[in-house]
Design goal:
5-stranded parallel β-sheet, Rossmann fold, 3-stranded antiparallel β-sheet, alpha/beta, about 230 residues
Length: about 230
């Protein structure tokens, strides 16, 4: 019997998985493992090396030279790529698109799989990604499939970029999301899909607080330890 409790959140790009997972982790006192940030860190490495997203052989070879760590300082997650804190540069659209494209390769996925699974064995964790409940943590006690309509996800991303002073067409963002959805659901290795025992949550018309409440409620029904006292 597992001595740790794991929550897996899967869903498409722009569904708010990272924001929600961080908040749930804080309320439950769990460790939040941002798997998307790990893939983005690898993408930054490939981009810096000038490796094309279509170059599977080059990407697979480069994986051997990558080391990624996750550290927490004052409750803030830091993503470390070969000793460099890249937390501030992994959230660009370029890194996101590269991460989505290269995540289809087996060498990339295997590089991160062992680290993610070891973390789950040693701590109560909540992880979000595309294949957490189906592949990375198939025995997670609580699995969530979090989604929203393409338009709503595009609007969220548009507002996020606007707040950072970055101008992008809403239609362009929506097209990017549709393309990423297609890649994620049609890739040969670990495609995005809802685990059979996952709770389906469509957040299109929900507030962040409502989504957090729904996930904590679902976890409580499945034996999750009580939230940490504030």
């Amino acid at each position: 019997m597992s001595v740790t409790y794991n929550i897996a959140i899967d869903g498409p790009a722009g569904a708010g998985k990272s924001t929600i997972a961080r908040a749930v982790a804080a309320k439950l006192g769990f460790v939040y493992v941002d798997t998307g940030a790990m893939y983005r860190a690898m993408a930054v490495y490939f981009l810096r090396k000038g490796i094309a997203r279509e170059d599977e052989a080059g990407i697979s070879e480069a994986c051997k030279d990558i080391r990624i760590d996750i550290r927490y300082e004052n409750g803030v997650q830091h993503v470390i790529l070969n000793g460099e804190d890249v937390s501030g540069i992994i959230r660009t659209e370029e890194a996101g698109n590269m991460a989505s494209a290269c995540s289809v390769y087996g060498a990339v996925r295997q590089k991160l799989l062992n680290l993610q699974q070891n973390l789950a064995k040693t701590s109560n964790v909540i992880m979000d990604g595309r294949d957490i409940g189906t592949c990375v943590l198939p025995d997670a006690q609580t699995k969530i499939y979090l989604t929203a309509s393409v338009r709503v996800r595009a609007l969220r991303r548009y507002k996020e970029l606007a707040e950072k002073g970055q101008e992008r067409s809403l239609d362009e963002i929506e097209q990017d999301i549709r393309e990423r959805d297609y890649r994620d659901t049609h890739r040969e290795i670990a495609p995005l899909k809802q685990a059979e025992d996952a709770v389906y949550i469509d957040s299109s018309d929900m507030t962040i607080a409502q989504v957090i409440g729904a996930i904590i409620g679902a976890a409580a029904e499945r034996g999750c330890p009580a939230p940490a006292q504030e």
